[in-house]
Structures are given as C-alpha cells and as structure tokens.
Description:
The chain is an alpha/beta fold. The chain has a single domain (3-244), classed as Phosphoenolpyruvate-binding domains (TIM Barrel, Alpha-Beta Barrel), CATH 3.20.20.60. The protein is built from 13 helices and eight strands. The protein has an eight-stranded parallel beta barrel with strand order 1-2-3-4-5-6-7-8, surrounded by nine helices. The model has no long low-confidence stretch (mean pLDDT 95). InterPro entries: ICL/PEPM, Isocitrate_lyase_ph_CS, Pyrv/PenolPyrv_kinase-like_dom, Pyrv_kinase-like_dom_sf.
Amino acid sequence: MTKADRMRAAFKQMCFSGDLVNLVVAPDALSAKIAERTGFKAIFQAGYATSANKLAQPDRGIADFGLMSNSAREIINAVNIPVFIDADTGYGDEQNIARLVRVYESMGAAGLFIEDQTWPKRCGHMDGKTIVPEDVMINKLKAAVDARQHDDFLIMSRTDAYAVTGLQSAIDRSRHYHEAGADLVFVEAPKTKADMQKVADSFPDVPVMANMIENGKTPLMTNEEIHEMGFSIAVHPNVLVYTETFATERLLKDMVTLGTTKNQMDQMVTFPQFNKFIGLDDINALEQKYATAPIKL
C-alpha cells in the first residue's frame, strides 16, 4: 500500500468514525510538519493561508490552481498524515474539475472540497459573496465523483448560500449536493449557534464540517462544543497565519528598534534544535552512506 493509499484510507476512517476530526490549516510545508509533530492527525491546505503565505494577498481568487496545487504538493511531501485540500470553485467547468481531481489524487491528497461561489471567489467570512445556480454546482460535483480513481478520496461540498439566500437554502443545497455524490458537507459561515445546530441536525448520517475563524462570522467554539452539536470535522483555517504575522512583526520591530535579537532568544528554537527538527541528521546520514573517498591526484 502506498503512502497516498494509507493517507486516504486513514482520513476516511477518521471522518466516519464518530470522533471529531481536528484540522488546522498549514500555510506551508514547515507549518505542516510542526502540526504533525505536535499531534495533529490530519491537516488542511486552504486558499486564505496559501494566498497570504505565497502572495501576501487576500483570499479573493488571486491564488490560482497552479499556485494552490504546487503548495499542496510541498505540504503533502513534507508529512505522513492526511492532507485535505481546498479546491475553491474548481477553477473552471467540469473538465477543469476532472483535471484537478486527478492532479490532487495523484499527488496523494486525502480529498478536497468544491464550493458554489462564483469566480473570483472570496473568503467565506468576507462580505459580497455570490453563488452559482444549484445545477451548475451539482454538475461540478458529479464530474468530481466521476473523475476520482479511489473511493477513499473524499469529496466535500461547500455552500456559501447562507450569506446570499439564507440558512434553509444552504441546507437544501447541501442536501442536493450530497445526493449528487458529495461524501462530506460544509455550510460556510453560519452566524449563530442555533443555525449551526440546525445544519448539524439536518445531516445526522453525513460528516459535516464546522469552520472556526477567529473574529469571523461564526461563533468561536471549542472542539468539544462543536462535536456535541453533531459536527464530525472542525477546521481552524487562519490561526497559524495570524500567529506567525503577530510574532514576526513583534520580532522585527525589536530588531529595528534595538538592532539585536538578544531580547527575543527565549521566543525561538535554537540553531541545533531547528536543524534537527527539519531533518539535518537524516540528510547527513544519507550523505555519509553514499560518500566516496576523494580522488587523489
């Protein structure tokens, strides 16, 4: 069994186990490796963090499929836990959907979600969203299901209809998306706990995801509260981007003001610690294994 097969099977088992799948979005390969080392069993690669990390730009449809897929490949290669993918709107019609499914499957992703926003999309917690007709999204999901080669590769539907046409519309769309073949359901940005509960109650036999954005539109809750509501998956999409920005800015301000990093040493790992963490010992051992004696002239 390949690594990709193991990761897909593991993620599917997690989602349908009855336990909560706790996901954090990794902006890059290093943060993905840190998440794995600190105990996360699966991670997410998403547009907001990727656009911020790679482009220093907001999540407004600026990060295209090429950038997103390259970043996903780096993250998947860096870890040995499942990586779930934000595929935005699919970047085009059904042919584009089929292609992206094949690409993400081949690189070892555990699955992906497709959303029903119009392109260019925007972060689900930003204002001004618009959505495509329901039948357009259904055809995209059918194309995704038809294109996948492995049943363990999970496809999630995301709807942004809550902000546009209301809660019941979002639930109805998600039900139809599930009937079209989506394995998992995601209703983006409900504004109250009562509405979140209605979403969870509407899909008692389908894994449903809750999205926890600090200062976003959805109430921030603990994983325990989310699970008690009936959600199967909790994702924390922006916490690493926000934390890295805060810590980096604070450090650099000190460097500009004081001209030294001495006051921040207790906020860093050491040179040896970091080299060990990113696998320098393994690289050195590999180099030694294949080392040859120098040629004497």
